[in-house]
């Protein structure tokens, strides 16, 4: 079974306090779902049409595990705390 990667980029952070509240809840919910943070932070360098925006990559043992974590009550609580505090692009990708 292929690993899965949860990739999030932050287009804009409009309320850092809401992002902090989200992070306090999201980290434990993701860890409880078996997620492991691989990347968290700003790009060291961007190329082509890359945007200089915060990027997070989380590894899961399977796509089903990543989906279940996203849909879990704990992570949904984190999303509620984030609310309109950031504009993000989030996707799940299976490993090669």
TrEMBL record:
Residues 3-95 form the DUF1330 domain. InterPro entries: Dimeric_a/b-barrel, DUF1330. It comes from the Bacteria. Gene3D superfamilies: 3.30.70.100. It holds the Pfam family DUF1330. PANTHER family: BLR0684 PROTEIN (PTHR41521:SF4), PTHR41521. This is DUF1330 domain-containing protein. It comes from Rhodopila globiformis (Rhodopseudomonas globiformis). The lineage of its organism: Bacteria, Pseudomonadati, Pseudomonadota, Alphaproteobacteria, Acetobacterales.
